[in-house]
Structures are given as C-alpha cells and as structure tokens.
Amino acid sequence: MTKTMDAECLVIGCGFAGGIIARELAERGGRRVLLLEKRDHIGGNAYDCIDQAGVLIHRYGPHIFHSNSRRVYEYLSRFTAWRPYEHKVVCSVYGKYLPVPFNLNSLDLAFEAEKASRIEGKLTETYGRERKVPILELRRSADPELTELADYVYRNVFLYYTQKQWGTTPEETDPEVTARVPIFISRDDRYFQDRYQGIPAEGYTALFERLLDHPNIELRLKTDALDLLRIDGGRIFFDGKPFSGTVVYTGPADELLGCRFGRLPYRTLDFQFETYPETWFQTYGTVNYTVDEAYTRITEFKYLTGQKLNERTTIVKEFSRAYTGAPGETPYYAVNNPDSASQYEKYSSEASGLPDFYLLGRLAEYKYYNMDAIAEKALLLGDRLIAQGGIRK
C-alpha cells in the first residue's frame, strides 16, 4: 500500500470508471495510486451484497453486463468468471405481459391473431427481418395499421413510463424523443442482443475486490475527496498541499466546483426492497409497469444471479424522482436539455484547464453510459495516460 503523499495519481470514485483507471495506472503504468471513495463500499452503483434473507441483491438496482467489445469482456474476465445470463424484460399492460423491446411476440399478444399476422407481414415486407424500426418512422407510414401499431406502443409501453422516469407531464413529454425507441421485427425476446452477456459468477463486489488487489493501489473508503481536494488559481491542492500528479475525477462535475454555476439536474431513484416467503415472486427477472403503479419496474434478483433458494426471494421496486442533492441521495440520470448542456459546459471548461486533471464517467461527464461503455472509456484513458508518461517498472 502507498502512503498518501507518495501517491502519484489520485482517483476519486470507486465504480467501474475509477476502479479500472486505478488498476490501469497501477499495473500497466507502474504508478502509485490513491483511490478515494465516499461510500463505505467498493463497486459504485454495481455493488452487490447479501441481504438479511440470504439473497444476493444489487443495492442500486439491477446491473446486467452486456457488450460487443471483446477488449472489455476479456479485461473484466481477468477478475471474474461469468454466469451466462440473457436478460428478458416484460411490461405489464393492464395485466398483460408484453416482451420489451416490443417485438413480434409482443405483437401477437397485443392484437388478435389475424391482425397481428397481417401487421407482421407489412413490417417484414417494408423493413425486413431483424430490424429495429423507430416508432417515429412507423408513424410516418401511409399504412394505417402501421401507424396504429406505433401509437399503441407509444401509449402503452413508453408514454407513462417515460413520464414516471423523467417527471414530465404528457404535455412536456416530447413525442419525437420517446418515439426513437424501436419496434424489433424479430422473435428474439432478449432485452440485449450484444455478443457478450452475463453476470459475474461471484457477484460484482467480488469482481471489484480482485480488480483493486494491486500493491500500487491504496483504497480509502468513507472518504469524501472534496473535503481534501481544493482547486485554487488553476492549481490543485490535496490535504492542504500542492499536488502535481494525475487526478481522475468520477464524481459529480458540479460538486467538484462547489456548484458555483448552479446544481446540475439529475433524476434519482428510491429503492423499496421486499422479501417474500416464496421461491419466486414473478415470472421474469424484470417487469416494467408502463401504464399503472407509481414505481417504474420490479426486479427479482435470483433470476439474475442464479442463486438457489427455496421459499424466500427478494425483489426491488424502483421509484424515480428529482435529485435535490440532499444527504443520502444518489444522482443517477443526467437530465439532458439545452440549459443543462450549457450549464455543464461551464464546469467541464474549468476542469479542462486544470493540469493533468481528467473527468471520467456518468457523473463527471454528465452522460449516460452502460457499464461496458464506461469500462472502455476508462481503458482508453489508461492507454492515453500511459502513453504520455511511459510505463514504469
């Protein structure tokens, strides 16, 4: 382990972004890395743990690994074996379960047989099989049955769900944004079609334990880096002293600079965990509630993890609301609009002027990333920094 003032690199935040860049700088770059995490655990939002019922849960909602990147898959495979798992999601439309993304199987369930067959033929003839066609494109069709299909999916699968997720009214919901979601002209019920899919066989926390197990990494949990990090006159101070090494920051960009340009808007999630004395609660890993209920979805973890437990199971209900910055809240989703983009640009512009300072990840870059995408970004940043500074033995 390193001593703090011997650290050549500071990495702030211990999710996928921070964990991977810390390992890259420590292992390939040969640098001494101090990794700071505000929470009391590693893994960021991918953290998993055993609850009181003995069920392995994802504390911050379900995380399913999927990727088409061979590099990311092989890199993470150094630290975990994988449980093969292909996620399937349904939405509850007035008690009827339809696969999502909406596909040909969903079509058969939503419409009577003759009409569904006729619409399938039109979709196939117009667009071809295994195509994902945006609802907006279907709405432009001259065929009334295709526009009817688009309207059905828009109203029953996406409209109210989007309103719950983003806190908008029907009048505020932009139909063109929602309509970008596709109809999949396929019988493939999988939520993702990526080449690599699965769940870490021993869980995400175990993956992170191995990822961070390197003699050049010092990890400090329950440490708010912003209590120690100060930016003054374009210079970086850490623990009261000038710091001239590399800093990779994965936390909220606005909080880094004291929210001086105002707090960036996010959506946060409230999780309601419930345990039941039964083997299964529902018939799918995740059920989205698109036309009713206050929550957006229910996930049952044993489908994801493959854990074998009889007569007990744990689910989580997710409720979306505006992030306020209050203690205990977690910002999950950036609210992207012209105003927030302009606001974020002020923060990123100031950070970009700092020497050897890098913003990385969902919060720091104010963008939504899947796990594999941020893993790849961290690897690419590692390539860049190592190339700049050489490899030390």
TrEMBL record:
Domain annotation UDP-galactopyranose mutase C-terminal: ranges: 157-368
Coiled-coil regions listed: none
A GO term, aspect molecular function: UDP-galactopyranose mutase activity
Family matches, as InterPro entries: UDP-GALP_mutase, UDP-GalPyranose_mutase_C
Database matches in Gene3D superfamilies: NAD(P)-binding Rossmann-like Domain
Named cofactor requirement(s): FAD
Keywords, comma-separated and alphabetical: FAD, Flavoprotein, Isomerase
Cellular component, GO, one term: cytosol
Keyword field contains Repeat: no
Domain of life from the UniProt record: Bacteria
Keyword set includes Isomerase: yes
Membership in a protein family: Belongs to the UDP-galactopyranose/dTDP-fucopyranose mutase family.
Name of the protein: UDP-galactopyranose mutase
Organism annotation: Papillibacter cinnamivorans DSM 12816
